[in-house]
Amino acid sequence: MKKLLLALFLAVGSMAAVQAQEVKWMTLDQALAAQKKKAKPIFMDVYTDWCGPCKMLDKNTFQAKEVADYINANYYAVKFNAEGDSEVNYKGKKYTNPKFDATRKGRNAVHDFTMFLKVQGYPSMYIFDSKGEVKSPIVGYHTPEQLLPLIKV
């Protein structure tokens, strides 16, 4: 009986692994550089480390095969930590997080690029057109079925 349960558990686990898909994330600087070589819109996920709905979006929505496949095929995908310490170069201006504290747990200082985007809540998703212009945000957690119609180009 134990062997049967173990075999069933392994079979279900391997089926779940086949269903999960990875979005090919990059930085905004990398995506903007890629746009210069091949024009394509950018899909950007703005998240924080402490945000529960952001983690749900990663686990439930971005790993859904249909969503990951669509984003990978039609966008340059960017993952941006709204409270991180990365440097972003956008439209000739450098954005940083000068008050970032690497020792701090939980909420941290807000990145200047987050302020530029006027992020209203987390998670927020932004689409940049093929020329790098920012469009309206998609704010909050969305299931795969809710998100797909909003990102179809």
How is the secondary structure organized here?
Layout: H1 2-19, E1 25-26, H2 28-37, E2 42-47, H3 52-61, H4 65-74, E3 76-81, E4 88-90, E5 93-95, H5 112-117, E6 124-128, E7 138-139, H6 144-151
Parallel strand pairs: 1-3, 2-3
Antiparallel strand pairs: 2-6, 4-5, 6-7
Question: Any overview of this molecule?
Answer:
The chain is globular, with a radius of gyration of 18 Å. A hairpin with a 2-residue loop joins strand 4 and strand 5. It has a five-stranded mixed sheet, with helices on both faces. It has a two-stranded antiparallel sheet with strand order 4-5. By secondary structure, the chain is α/β, with parallel strands linked by helices. The chain starts with a helix and ends with a helix. The chain has one domain: Glutaredoxin (3-Layer(aba) Sandwich). Helix 4 packs parallel to helix 6 (144-151). It contains six helices and seven strands, in the order αβαβααβββαββα.
CATH class, named: Alpha Beta
Strand order of the largest sheet: 1-3-2-6-7
In CATH terms, what is the architecture?
Answer: 3-Layer(aba) Sandwich
Major sheet details: 5 strands, mixed
Order of helices and strands: HEHEHHEEEHEEH
- Strand composition percent: 15-25%
Total discrete domains = 1
CATH superfamily: Glutaredoxin
Helix and strand composition category: alpha/beta
Cα(first) to Cα(last) distance is: 51 Å
Number of helices: 6
Mean pLDDT: 88
- Tally of strands: 7
Protein name: Thioredoxin family protein
Organism: Flavobacterium microcysteis
Domain Thioredoxin: 4-153
InterPro entries: AGR/TXD, Thioredoxin-like_fold, Thioredoxin-like_sf, Thioredoxin_CS, Thioredoxin_domain
